[in-house]
């Protein structure tokens, strides 16, 4: 392991033990038709006092490789669920999406753990959606078992970054997902690329045909939003709607963006 990675890992372990330097940002996912807030996605943030902000793309893979991911996932779930409760008290209606690493899904008791956390923190399981990236690290049959346990408990399951994995269709056919998130790479060139529009239209049709909700990620322009609306995409998320926000910014954001 490179010296910098070793240092990052040690510091992350310390941060997790103390709960210091870590926080969650929350990015709204809004309904394409009227802009109402439907869900917020929790995104982990880490600011180290000497290294400064470390992006999740730098430390999440390290945590996955070196045995820290379960601790990180639990910290994210606990923090996100507590925050959801706080918003609930303040009268903000939303569900919560949390990114879950494929590694954490390997534990058969993970669905029970999530259910216990929900119960302990007072969140109905059907207000929680887990975002999972494609790319199986385990046999499909085992993954199917774990995901089915989540669905029986009422937890929603989204395929994150749809279109970037290698076995998307097979997974969709066999696994009990409730939502597809179209990767940003298919959204970026939407106003100009006919091919991307065809792909997005097909994914929307596929999702709706299978009874799934569809979200487009990385929406940055009004032109993209207009096309996604026309193509029947259910939810949109991206800098055009909102950057990932600090927890305390969400209620003011939501009151400025009341359903039109
Ligand atoms: P992701 O789940 O696909 O999250 C979307 C990423 O795109 C986020 O980056 C978000 O800040 C960024 N984004 C949102 N809207 C826009 C937009 O309009 N344009 C552009 N260019 N980017 C946009 P972030 O927060 O740096 O997270 C990167 C990745 O790190 C996430 O990708 C996810 O895979 C992972 N990650 C983040 N938080 C967690 C976590 O709590 N647990 C796990 N396991 N992974 C996480
Ligand atoms: Ca995600
Ligand atoms: Ca994504
Ligand atoms: Ca991603």
Overall residue-averaged pLDDT value = 93
Task: Indicate the overall shape.
Answer: globular
How is the biggest beta sheet arranged?
A: 8 strands, mixed, barrel
Q: Radius of gyration in whole Å, from Cα?
A: 18 Å
* End-to-end distance: 52 Å
As residue ranges, the low-confidence spans are none
**β-sheet strand percentage:** 15-25%
Question: How do the helices and strands follow one another from N- to C-terminus?
Answer: HEEEHHEHEHEHEHEHEH
- Helix % is 40-55%
Structural class: alpha/beta
Task: Work out the number of β strands.
Answer: 9
Outline the structure in words.
Helices cover 43% and strands 21% of the residues. By secondary structure, it is of the alpha/beta class. It starts with a helix and ends with a helix. 33% of the residues are buried. The structure holds ligand C2E and calcium ion (3 copies). InterPro entries: Cyclic-di-GMP_PDE-like (IPR050706), EAL_dom (IPR001633), EAL_sf (IPR035919).
Task: Provide a brief overview of the structure.
Pfam families: EAL. This is EAL domain-containing protein. The protein has 260 residues and is α/β, with parallel strands linked by helices.
Task: Give a topology summary.
Elements: H1 3-18, E1 22-31, E2 37-48, E3 52-54, H2 56-65, H3 69-89, E4 95-100, H4 110-121, E5 128-133, H5 140-152, E6 156-162, H6 168-174, E7 179-182, H7 194-209, E8 213-216, H8 222-230, E9 235-236, H9 250-256
Parallel strand pairs: 2-4, 4-5, 5-6, 6-7, 7-8, 8-9
Antiparallel strand pairs: 1-2, 1-9, 2-3
């Amino acid at each position: 392991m490179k010296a910098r990675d070793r240092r990052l890992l040690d510091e992350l372990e310390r941060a997790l033990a103390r709960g210091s330097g870590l926080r969650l940002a929350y990015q709204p996912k809004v309904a394409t038709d009227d802009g109402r807030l439907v869900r917020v996605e929790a995104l982990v943030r880490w600011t180290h006092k000497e290294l400064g902000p470390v992006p999740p793309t730098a430390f999440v893979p390290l945590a996955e490789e070196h045995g820290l991911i379960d601790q990180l996932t639990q910290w994210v779930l606990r923090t996100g669920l507590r925050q959801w409760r706080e918003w609930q008290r303040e009268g903000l209606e939303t569900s919560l999406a949390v990114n879950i690493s494929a590694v954490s899904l390997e534990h058969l008791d993970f669905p029970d753990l999530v259910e216990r956390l929900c119960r302990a923190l007072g969140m109905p399981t059907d207000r929680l959606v887990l975002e999972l990236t494609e790319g199986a690290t385990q046999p499909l049959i085992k993954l199917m078992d774990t995901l089915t346990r989540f669905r029986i408990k009422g937890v929603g399951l989204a395929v994150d970054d749809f279109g970037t994995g290698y076995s998307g269709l097979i997974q969709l056919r066999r696994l009990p997902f409730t939502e597809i998130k179209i990767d940003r790479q298919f959204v970026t060139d939407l106003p100009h690329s006919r091919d991307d529009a065809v792909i997005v239209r097909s994914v929307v049709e596929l999702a709706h045909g299978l009874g799934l909700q569809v979200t487009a990620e990385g929406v940055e322009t009004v032109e993209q939003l207009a096309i996604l609306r026309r193509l029947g995409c259910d939810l949109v998320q991206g800098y055009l709607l909102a950057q990932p926000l600090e927890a305390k910014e969400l209620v003011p954001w939501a009151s400025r963006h009341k359903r039109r």
